[in-house]
Structure formats: structure tokens, C-alpha cells
Amino acid sequence: MRENISLAPYTWFRVGGVAQVLFMPKDEADLALFLPQVPSNIPVQILGVASNTLVRDGGVPGVIIRLGPSFGKVEKVGDNMLRVGAACLDNALAKKAAKYGLTGMEFYAGIPGTIGGALRMNAGCYGAETKDILIECIALDRRGQRRIIPVSEMGYRYRHCGADADLIFVEALFQGEHASHENILARMDEITKGREQSQPIKEKTGGSTFKNPNPKMSNGRGAWQVIDAAGGRGFKVGGAQMSTKHCNFMINTGDASAKDLEGLGEKIRDMVRDTQDVELEWEIKRIGIEAKHE
Ligand SMILES: Cc1cc2nc3c(=O)[nH]c(=O)nc-3n(C[C@H](O)[C@H](O)[C@H](O)COP(=O)(O)OP(=O)(O)OC[C@H]3O[C@@H](n4cnc5c(N)ncnc54)[C@H](O)[C@@H]3O)c2cc1C
């Protein structure tokens, strides 16, 4: 447990202020011991690798939890299931599933987050989502109590999880189907190459900034299409820019502040509302407070 730790190096955007307290539990027992000792008026938030999170410049009051390597294990259970720690990277799970000849998890090859983040965001791509392969997950509540939650009780819909916001997922049980190792690797390769071509994956970014709007409101257009139509491609605020490669991705071009990035997102929402009559909803989670003096 450390105090006043800059969170920027822990985020994909590489921006943001300090965490008042950063706690990295050694294991689940350590986390279960810690949680009930935090007074209920102190906020507690969990971060994965912050590939879908913007930390504001004024920092995050209270406690930020980040799970350590002991939460990153993958273990085969029975014939076709994998028990996975919440700090495991999505990509590492895709590789492990391929090794065991299990299909269904290839889509994780292209998502740079952790399994904890995937459980909370119902992460997905190429027509597959976390909810399709999840059997159950294990979470600790704010009092450190262990809960086993079946997928039917996770309240999943597109990029949304309805499970209590204060739950910390520590483990998940996924189910795949048997398939040939070569076919699985070929599919993962296809996904990774597709993303290299269509997304600015080497930049300081946060993935999709906005959820795809309701198709009835946007005439079937995705978020990037309404942003493009509104003139948002390449649009800049300070050091923040909408990617020219994928215009639903924001980029820190080098010296952006979190304020620049959030300001850019809000400006894009205004432009899309004014010109396309579509209301965009943030997919990126924004945490912390704005800086007092700039
Ligand atoms: C280049 C790029 C491409 C991307 N492509 C995709 C894509 O195709 N599809 C897609 O869905 N997403 C995509 N993303 C977004 C992102 O990778 C996913 O949302 C991912 O699931 C976030 O995981 P994370 O560990 O980074 O979570 P964070 O950003 O750290 O956190 C996201 C949310 O999850 C919560 N959370 C994290 N860990 C836990 C836990 N253990 N228990 C409870 N809550 C937790 C956080 O509190 C926060 O609310 C992309 C991002 C980038 C940068």
C-alpha cells in the first residue's frame, strides 16, 4: 500500500493525477482482509490496466486497487473450462485457450485489457462478447465477502454489466468448445491483423470512446460513422485528437492532459448531437477529480 502514487504510468492514455492510496493485494486473502478495514466513507475503486479508463488530472481520492500477478493464473477445469484470475490479460487467456484446443475465446486476442476489466465492460469484438463464454465469476464485496455470481445474474448487455458497482472480480470460469489448435491460431491471427490495420493500437489511447448508438436513432450507423459525418475525424483539443485511423478512438498525441481528452470527447458529443441528432454515450470510464489550478 502506497500513498500519492501517480496513476498515469498505469494507464493506456498515460495521463492523470495521483491515487491518494494505491493498494496492490498479494492474493485474495490479503484483499479480503484489507477491504473491511477501509472506512465506508472512503471510496474504493479497482483498475485493471486502464485501457478503457481516463484518470482525471486532479487525481483519485480514496483507494485504488490493482491486482497483482497472483491474480493472473489460468487453470484448466474439467473437459472444456478455464478458471482465470482477474488480472490475466485477455490476450494471455486467448493464447492459453488455443493451447488447450478450446475455441470461443479468440476475440480476446485483440483486446488489451484484463479479465477483470472484460467482466465489468462485457468486452467483446467481432460478434463475440464476454457474456457468451462466461459461466460464473467470483467477486469480493466492499466488506471482503466472497460471492459466486452466475452469468445470468451479471445483468449483461452491450458493453454493460449490471452487477453491483462495488464488486471486485477476482476470478472467472469460462467455457469453450473443442477445435483444432491450427484453426484457433488462424482465427486469432486474423483478428490481430485486422486490428493492426483498423485501430491505432500503438498510440496512447483508450479504445472506443463511445458506445455504438441505438441503431434506430443513428440509422444503423456506428459511433465512428456519426463522428466522421460530424467532422470529428482528426479533430483536436490541446494535445488530444480523434484518431484519423479510427475516429472513435481518442489519442494523447504527446502532451495531452486528461482535461484535453475529456474536453475533446464532450466537444465530439456536441458536434454529433448538433449535426447528426444522435446522443453519444461514453464507453470510456472517467474517474477522479479535475485539477484545481492549471
Ligand atoms: C487499442 C485498444 C483496443 C480496444 N479494443 C476493444 C474491443 O475491441 N472491444 C472492447 O470491448 N474493448 C476494447 N478496448 C477497451 C478495453 O481494452 C476493454 O474495455 C477492457 O475490457 C478494459 O480492461 P482493463 O483491464 O483495461 O479495464 P480498466 O480500463 O482498468 O477498467 C475498466 C472498468 O472495469 C473495472 N474493472 C477493472 N478490473 C476490475 C475487476 N477486477 N473487478 C471489477 N471491476 C474491474 C474498472 O473499475 C473500470 O470500471 C480497447 C482498448 C484499446 C486501448
CATH architectural designation of the largest domain: 2-Layer Sandwich
Q: Unreliable stretches, pLDDT < 50, 5 or more residues?
A: none
Sheet with most strands: 5 strands, antiparallel
Q: What number of structural domains do the residues give?
A: 3
Tell me, briefly, the overall form.
globular
**In total, how many beta strands?**
19
The CATH topology of the largest domain is: Uridine Diphospho-n-acetylenolpyruvylglucosamine Reductase, domain 3
Gyration radius, in Å: 19 Å
Sheet-strand content, in percent, reads: 25-35%
Quaternary state, please? single chain
Order of helices and strands: EEHEEEEEHEHEEHEEEEHEHHEEEHE
| Distinct ligand kinds | flavin-adenine dinucleotide
First-last Cα distance: 29 Å
> What is the CATH class designation of the largest domain?
Alpha Beta
Description:
There is one protein chain. By secondary structure, the chain is an alpha+beta fold. The protein folds into 3 domains: 2-69, Uridine Diphospho-n-acetylenolpyruvylglucosamine Reductase, domain 2; 70-196, 2-Layer Sandwich (Uridine Diphospho-n-acetylenolpyruvylglucosamine Reductase, domain 3), CATH 3.30.465.10; 203-287, UDP-N-acetylenolpyruvoylglucosamine reductase, C-terminal domain (Uridine Diphospho-n-acetylenolpyruvylglucosamine Reductase, domain 1, Alpha-Beta Complex), CATH 3.90.78.10. The chain is built from 8 helices and 19 strands. The strands form 6 sheets. Strands 6-7-13-11-12 form a 5-stranded antiparallel beta sheet. Strands 1-2-5-3 form a 4-stranded mixed beta sheet, with no helix packed on it. Strand 9 (124-125) and strand 10 form a beta hairpin. The longest helix has 19 residues, at 258-276. It is globular and about 55 Å long. The mean pLDDT is 97. Bound molecules: flavin-adenine dinucleotide (FAD). Flavin-adenine dinucleotide binds at residues 12, 45-53, 67, 86, 110-114, 116-118, 120-121, 123-125, 168-169, 199, 201, 205-207, 285.
